[in-house]
Design brief:
It is built from 6 helices and 13 strands. The chain is of the alpha+beta class.
Length: about 300
C-alpha cells in the first residue's frame, strides 16, 4: 500500500472513489469529475485566503493498493469562532473501502500529522460549514451510511459533538390547513443553480412578519437530474407569541403546495439531533427519517492507545 498526496492528474479515479463511497448516502448523487475538481482546486496552492468554506493550508492524502484507491481524506485549517487567531484542524471529507480498515487508519494518521504541524489543539470532522457543496443537503454532517468511517473516527478518539437528522417525503401530496391566526402569506421565488427556483414563504399580521419558511431546490447542491425535483426546507421559524397555533404547519404545507405547482415532487427537511420538538413535528407531518448525521471532534491531548 502506498500513501500519496493528491494531484490534479488523480481526479478521475478519485471522483469514481468518492461516488462509490457516497452511493448509499441520502441525497448524495453522482458527481462529475469537473465538479469534484472545483472542491479540490485549492489543494495545490501553498496557502489560500480564508473565505467561503473557511479553510486554508488544504491537503489530501490517498491510499492506493495495486493501483486502486482504498482511502481518501481531505483536510485543512480553519479559525475558531470569534477567536480568529486560534487554528482548528478540519477533516472536510474522509472515506475508505469497507474492509480496508488499515488504509483508512494510515491516511487518518497522515492527515492528523499534517494538521499538527499547524499546532492545532482540536480537529473537527465533517463540520457543516466546510462540507462539499454536492455532499448531501445543507446542514449535513457525516452520514450514518458511512458507518465504517464513524467507527474508525470513534476508535481514534473522536467524539460526536453535533448532529442533524434528515427526513424525507417522497411523492408528497398536501392540502394546507389554515392556521387559526389571521395572517397573510406571500411567496418569494429566487433563481439558483437548479432547474426550479428556491422558495420563501412569509407570514404577516398587521404588516409585521410573524413567520418564515425557506426552501432550496436540490439543484443547489447537485447538478444530477435526480436532485432537481427535490426540495429541502432549510428554515421554518415562527415568532414566539404566535407559536402553538398551527402557523408553522400552515407555512410548511403552503410552501410544499406552491413548490409542487412548479415541478417539485419530493421534500426533505432536517433538524438538530436534540431538537425533539421539531423532530416530533416533522415526523408527524408526513416526513420519515432517512439519515442521522454527526460532527466528530477530537481533542489532541486525549488521543487513545490503539489495540488492533
Amino acid at each position: 500500500m502506498e500513501i500519496i498526496q493528491y494531484t490534479p492528474n488523480m481526479q478521475e479515479p478519485l471522483t469514481q472513489f468518492y461516488n462509490r463511497m457516497t452511493a448509499n448516502v441520502p441525497h448524495c448523487y453522482p458527481v462529475k469529475e469537473e465538479e469534484f475538481a472545483i472542491a479540490m482546486h485549492r489543494i495545490t496552492a501553498d496557502k489560500a485566503d480564508i473565505k467561503d468554506d473557511g479553510l486554508d493550508s488544504e491537503a489530501a492524502f490517498i491510499a492506493v493498493a495495486d493501483g486502486v484507491i482504498q482511502a481518501f481524506i481531505h483536510v485543512g485549517i480553519s479559525r475558531s469562532g470569534e477567536n480568529r487567531e486560534e487554528k482548528l484542524g478540519v477533516i472536510r471529507f474522509f472515506g475508505y473501502e469497507r474492509g480496508a480498515r488499515r488504509a483508512g487508519q494510515v491516511v487518518l494518521e497522515k492527515a492528523e500529522a499534517h494538521l499538527k504541524t499547524f499546532n492545532v489543539s482540536q480537529i473537527s470532522a465533517f463540520p457543516q460549514e466546510c462540507q462539499y457543496r454536492f455532499y448531501h443537503f445543507e446542514h449535513a454532517y457525516l452520514s450514518d451510511a458511512l458507518d465504517q468511517v464513524q467507527g474508525l473516527l470513534g476508535f481514534n478518539g473522536y467524539r460526536r459533538s453535533s448532529g442533524e437528522v434528515f427526513l424525507d417525503w417522497e411523492d408528497y401530496s398536501i392540502t394546507p390547513i389554515p392556521s387559526s391566526l389571521p395572517v397573510k402569506l406571500s411567496v418569494e421565488w429566487k433563481d439558483g443553480r437548479g432547474q426550479f427556483p428556491n422558495c420563501t414563504v412569509l407570514a404577516h399580521q398587521n404588516g409585521e412578519q410573524v413567520g418564515i419558511c425557506e426552501s432550496l431546490g436540490g439543484g443547489e447542491f447537485s447538478s444530477h437530474t435526480d436532485a432537481q425535483t427535490w426540495l429541502h426546507t432549510t428554515w421554518l421559524g415562527i415568532e414566539d407569541d404566535f407559536q402553538g397555533k398551527g402557523l408553522g404547519r400552515y407555512l410548511l404545507q403552503y410552501a410544499l403546495q406552491e413548490m409542487k405547482k412548479i415541478g417539485y415532487r419530493h421534500a426533505a427537511i432536517s433538524t438538530a439531533w436534540d431538537n425533539h420538538r421539531a423532530f416530533l413535528f416533522y415526523s408527524n407531518c408526513g416526513y420519515r427519517t432517512v439519515d442521522w448525521t454527526y460532527e466528530f471532534v477530537k481533542d489532541l491531548s486525549e488521543a487513545p492507545t490503539h489495540k488492533w
